[in-house]
Amino acid sequence: MQAAIVITGAAQRVGLALAKSFVSEGHKVIVSYRTLRPGIKELQQLGVVCIQADFEQQQDIDAFIVAVKNQCCSIRLLVHNASDWLAERSDLAPNIVFQRMMQIHANVPYQLTQALADYLKADGGGDVIAMTDFVAGSGSKKHVAYAASKAALENMVKSFASLYSPTVKVNGIAPGLLMFNLDDDEAYKAKALSKSLLGNEPGAQVVIDSVAYLMNSTYLTGHILALDGGRSLAQKNT
Ligand SMILES: NC(=O)C1=CN([C@@H]2O[C@H](COP(=O)(O)OP(=O)(O)OC[C@H]3O[C@@H](n4cnc5c(N)ncnc54)[C@H](OP(=O)(O)O)[C@@H]3O)[C@@H](O)[C@H]2O)C=CC1
Ligand SMILES: Nc1nc2c(c(=O)[nH]1)N=C([C@H](O)[C@@H](O)CO)CN2
To answer: Distance between CA atoms of 158 and 156, rounded to whole angstroms?
Structure first.
């Protein structure tokens, strides 16, 4: 049976683009989604195994693991992509924000990586790639819990790289800006673009390219790939 590519949060944007790219290369793809968006219907028509799961619910995490194991005998790549970009806000208690961020960005990757480790080790080994964020290293005054949870994810990349080497490589991708959201206004876009040296909105293709690079590498593990347009070298905004 063909080794699977497993991507969490593939109903839209980066996850959807990644899933479509792997389908186009002939891979068996298994994805999670929370909301039934048009992208999931597209993936289903392409033969992708789409598993509904709200990772806020432990029973959904457990069911997703069982469903993945029922669909394949080995996993070539596991991408921790599912994410919620939640800012601190007056209508949500801090403990709720913190719990939700740590749940999706740390607890879920922690559980899925360990539960699927044997499938990653099978058939010659595989890769785990975690989508983190530039702000995991810098912090973020408007997304404090989000940034902290992505930092936790980056730390786990290093732990799991040690734990599962040499059979499984574990790496992270820390993007700056990838894709704007529909409700981003022009002022926000201009400010976001100014935060990097290259000043562009690259889109999902740079993630597809980075995932391929990490998968094909024979000498990278425990590495966080800074996919950020030179953001760390850009002057602070005035
Ligand atoms: N976009 C960008 O510019 C940047 C992105 N990143 C990171 O790259 C990755 C991809 O980004 P992007 O495509 O914008 O991500 P999205 O904001 O589109 O989130 C991806 C998916 O995560 C799913 N998700 C969120 N919470 C849950 C949950 N509790 N249970 C199950 N699924 C959930 C959503 O599912 P559904 O839609 O089905 O509800 C959503 O479609 C993310 O990890 C993000 O943090 C980092 C820096 C910049
Ligand atoms: N899950 C998400 N995480 C992030 C998003 C997003 O849309 N979904 N967007 C960003 C921003 O683009 C930021 O990098 C630049 O303002 C960060 N994380």
So the answer is: 5
